[in-house]
Amino acid sequence: MIYLDNAATTRTAPEVVEAMLPFFSENYGNASSIYTLGSVSKKALNQARRTLADYLGARQEEIYFTAGGSEADNWALKAAAEAYGEKGKHIVTTRIEHHAVLHTCEYLEKHGFEVTCVGVDGEGIVNLGELEAAIRPDTILISVMFANNEVGTLQPVKEIGKIAHDRGILFHTDAVQAFGHLPIRVDELHIDMLSASAHKVNGPKGVGCLYIRSGLKLRGFIHGGAQERSRRAGTENIPGIVGFGKAIERAVRIMPEKTQRETELRDYLIDRIEREIPYCRLNGDRSRRLPGNVNFSFQFIEGESLLIMLDMKGICGSSGSACTSGALDPSHVLLAMGLSHEMAHGSLRLTLSEENTREEMDIVVEAIREIVGKLRAMSPLYEDYLKSRTAGS
Amino acid sequence: MYSEKVMDHFQNPRNVGEIEEASGVGTVGNAKCGDIMRIFLDIDGEGIIRDVKFKTFGCGAAVATSSMATELVKGKTVREAMQVTNKAVMEALDGLPPVKVHCSLLAEEAIHAALWDYAEKNGITIEGLERPRSDIGEQEEEPEY
To answer: What is the 3-state secondary structure (H, E, C) of B31-51?
Structure first.
C-alpha cells in the first residue's frame, strides 16, 4: 500500500503509541485524584501541555486540551462570539475554511451574527485587501486558517494577525494542517486563538487543543468539572494527551529533516505529473504550500473514479469531487479559487509523509498516467474536446 | 460501499466507445453535477438494437450504471428497451448506495435520450417516450458564493 492521504490522518508513530500504552492499564489514574496514581496522570498531562506550549512559544496555562480540531474551532468561534457579542456582531473569515469553521459561522449567523467570507486568489491565498475592506467597526473576530487542508496553501497569517491587532480585533487560526509541520510562534504571528489536532501529526485520533491567549474572557464550552481551568470539563483523555505531547515532541525533533524530505518528494511528484500527464492543473501555490501537499485537477475526468482505480492499485488519495463528500457540489475550496465545476470534480489530493519514497512516487505517476488515460478514453468531455480540436485545425 | 457487480462493471465496463453514424445518440447530465453520460445506439430496420456503446464522465456508479444499461438494452427491441428503468439497472447491479441512485436515473435518461434522437431522425413516435430533460447543452453556471 502507498499511503498518500496524510492530510486526512497520519499513522500514529510507534514512539507515540509506546508513550501512550502505560496510561491505559498501568497508570490509569484520574488526574484529579489526590493519591499517587492520580498524580502520575497529572504529571503526564502537564508535561504534554508544556511540550505544546513550548512549541507555540506560549504559556502552559494557555493550552486547553479538547477532543479534536473541530471542537477547538467550535469553541473558539462560539465562545468569542458570546464573550464579545456586546462589542459587535461581525465576524470575518474566508471561503476556503474547513467546515468546522464555516458551519460554526453559519450557526452563529442564525444567532444574530453577521459573517463576511473573504475570497482567495487563483492559488488559494487570502486576498488581504479584501480582508481589510471587510472589517467594520463592529468586527470582533477574524478567523483564517494557517494552511489549507485541500490545496496546502499557506496563508499570510502574520499579516492578518497584524491587521487584526492594529484594530483591536481577535484573531483565531485553524492550524490543524500546520500544527507540528511548520514552526508556529503565537506572539510573532499575533495569534489569539489557535486550533490543533493530534492525528494530523502522527498522534492519536480524538485529541486536539485550543490555544487561548491569556486575558481573553472566553467561557468554557463543556460544562461540568474543574478540568482545564474550569473551561473544558470532563476527565482528561490522558493516553490521548500523552500521545499528543509525544507526537509534538517528535515533530519538533524531526521537523527540519521531515520538511526537506517531503518538499523534495512533493516537488518531484509535481514535476513528473506536470511533464508527463497532459491537461492537468496544479492547484494551490507552487512554493507557499505545505511540504507534503500535492493537488492536481485532471481535465475531462471525475475524481471518485480516479480514487477507486488508485485504490485498486493500493494507492490511497483523496479528491474534492462531490461524489467523495456525499455533497452535490464539488470542493468549496477549489470553486473559491475559480476552478470550473468540471475541474473541481477532477481533482486529486496526494499528501505525503516522511515515510514515503521516490520509488513510490514513480509508481504513483505511472498509475495516474494509466488511469487518467483509461478514464479519458471513456469520457464524453474528452471526445468533444478532441473533436473540437480537429474541427478547429 | 459498492457491490461486487458495481465494482466489476466499473473496472471492466462493457460497451465503452462510440458508434460512427449511430441510429441515435443521447447525452445527459452536466459537468456541474459531475456526471455526463452519452449513449450511442445502432438500431436495424426491424427496430432491434444491434449495438450500443457509451461514454461517461462521472463516478464509479455512473460508469457502472452506464455499462449495465447498455448490457440490458443490447439485442432488445426499442419497445423492450423502453422497459429498462433505473430500478432494473439498480437491481441488475445488486443495488447502489442511496447517494448514487441518481446515477441509475441518469442511465435510464441517457437510453431514452438516444431513443428520442433515433425517433426524431426517423420521424417515428415511440410509445411512452418523452423528450429528454437534461442534456449537455445546458451550460455550466458560474459558481455561486
So the answer is: CCCCEEEEEEEEECCCCEEEE
